[in-house]
Amino acid sequence: MIRRRLRLPKTLLWLLIPLPALFIGLRHAQPVMGGLRVIDVVAAIPEAGGFQPDSIQVQAGEKVLLRFHAQDVAHGVAIGPGLGVDLGDVEPGQTKSVVLTFDEAGTFTFYCNLWCSPNHWRMRGVIDVMERDGALVSTAATVEHDPVIDALIAEGVDIDANVHDNGHSGGNAVPAMQDVPRPSAARGAALAQSLVVPSQLQDQNWRRTHTPRQGKAALAAANPRTGDQELADLAAFLWVADGAPDRLDQAKNLYAKNCTACHGESGGGDGTAAGFAPQLPASLSDPERMLDRRPDVLYAKIRRGGMGTGMPNFGTLFTPEETWSLVDFVWRLAVGDPGGDSALPPAP
Questions:
Q1: What is the CATH code of the structural domain delimited by 12-142?
Q2: In 3D, which of 216, 174, 185 has the Cα closest to residue 340?
Q3: Is 180 exposed, middle or buried (0-12, 13-18, 19+ CB in 10 A)?
Q4: Which residues of the chain form beta strands (DSSP E)?
Q5: Helix (H, G, I), strand (E, B) or coil at 207
Q6: What are the residue ranges spanned by the domains of the chain?
Q7: Which tens digit of pLDDT belongs to each residue from 164-203?
Q8: What number does CATH give the domain 144-348?
Q9: Closest Cα partner for 311 from 348, 276, 272?
Q10: What is the distance of C-alpha 109 from the center of its chain?
Q11: pTM score
């Protein structure tokens, strides 16, 4: 009888401890299983604390088991950049795990890629990987300049401007496309072998730093007898010709999980979360708008975020290569897929 009385308060105590506290206790304990350090992370909506913990330190070469527990609603869990880790959706009360070994010191981000609340974009955490001698590579000390963004700044391009015209075209008047039907990359692909494509338009770096509308002007000068519709179609094709199928498939998946909530499945700016943004998301499927955009500006917006628009930065989530693939995918939302053989014609 005495022993039962002694046990009763302990039993009640465990019943009264909330589930999150149990997870937090596991997290701080960081148990070791067969030489593998286990790190538990609780995922809750940002209003309830977000990822707990939101900062993790591991050592280069150390093998760790990361266990993500969804506390309240479903959360999508991915880790980047460049790791290719996507655990998919973690339902409330469910746990998903991944074993990782970081070969080199650096900083990585774990994040939610499933819309979970109006403050979804705060669902991010940092993994600091220390040198093998225990030295921590400070995130602030290792911020790498992006050469694409640096070049835009040096050129004086306003990444956040709503319309990129004079600053991008050197002040030259560029023919409008309002008077032609929607440009088609597929129709442009059929014209690529029969029309003259100036050498600069066959240079990927040139296309990445100029707009399709500027490309149309260059095509018009080289093909003076060609109509506006054909020129617009060929320009559309040239700006989507770089995407490799495997990378586009990857970009399509990244877009679906990270962009559709605001920009919509077809890029119309009509995603289910569009109304929560301080500024309505841009329509990526509007060719009249997109044909005034430089690829490097789209790249910069994805990596750095849109100031004042509510669009977060993805530079800590995606590699530069993944970002360029996203840009290539976004163009297709505006002008379609070229289909078939999308190889560029030989230089004249």
A1: 2.60.40.420
A2: 185
A3: middle
A4: 32-33, 36-43, 51-52, 55-59, 63-70, 75-80, 85-90, 95-101, 106-112, 124-130
A5: helix
A6: 12-142, 144-348
A7: 443 333 333 344 444 557 899 999 999 998 999 999 999 9
A8: 1.10.760.10
A9: 276
A10: 12
A11: 0.82
